[in-house]
Design brief:
By secondary structure, the protein is α/β, with parallel strands linked by helices. Helix content is 25%, strand content 25%.
Length: 211
């Protein structure tokens, strides 16, 4: 399951040898999270089938407006463009016999959805986390959370704000993502608690609990 189609999706896929995507989950429709949308066409070609994508109705409406061609069968072959089936969620849903719990958060005034996959919680572009969403995150084995930079930002968690959320949720391990270029990996890592790390491209995470 791929979360978002980042602008550099093609480069990331080549770097890790990714040759299969079974489904795509979208957190929201900002450009840095959907800019690699057209690169999904290669995965249609490899799989020789449509790919299912999942989004909140608000995000789905933007995807249909912006990438309408991806949801219409125009060619009698795969690979010419993305060929997708769009599914919406307004709460927990099941995908490949696995329960996925969306986690609504606020990215400034923009509604964004993180996801809980059993013992793992993935949260990006959050600034304000409603109490109900915090409750959904509790008990996670691994928390992946955005932490833009040390300085406060109006629409993203800072590193200190992300650490406060981690202290509240109490996961076994936490990884900081969506970092700005001003964040020094070595200098920042030296200041983090032992169970918190900066994520990096190609990172593989294993959880203790089954999903």
């Amino acid at each position: 399951m791929l979360i978002d189609t980042a602008t550099e999706l093609r480069l990331q896929a080549l770097a890790v040898g990714l040759d299969r995507i079974d489904a795509v989950l979208f957190t929201h429709a900002h450009a840095d999270h959907v800019g690699g949308f057209d690169d999904l066409r290669r995965f249609n070609e490899l799989a020789q089938r449509h790919l299912p994508v999942y989004a909140h109705p608000d995000t789905a409406a933007i995807l249909r407006e912006r990438f309408g061609y991806a949801f219409v069968d125009q060619f009698p072959f795969y690979g010419g463009k993305p060929d997708l089936t769009l599914h919406t969620f307004n709460g927990a849903f099941t995908l490949f016999d696995r329960r996925i719990q969306p986690i609504p958060v606020w990215h400034g005034r923009w509604l964004v959805h993180g996801f809980r996959f059993g013992p793992l919680v993935y949260l990006t572009d959050a600034k304000t986390i409603p109490p109900a969403s915090l409750e959904t995150m509790r008990g996670a084995d691994v928390l992946v959370i955005n932490a833009l930079r040390q300085r406060p930002h109006p629409t993203h968690l800072s590193i200190d704000e992300a650490l406060a959320v981690i202290a509240e949720v109490k996961p076994r391990r936490a990884y900081l993502v969506h970092l700005a270029h001003e964040v020094s990996h070595a200098a920042t890592s030296a200041l983090l608690p032992p169970h918190v790390e900066l994520a990096y491209d190609g990172l593989t995470v294993r959880t203790q609990a089954d999903w």
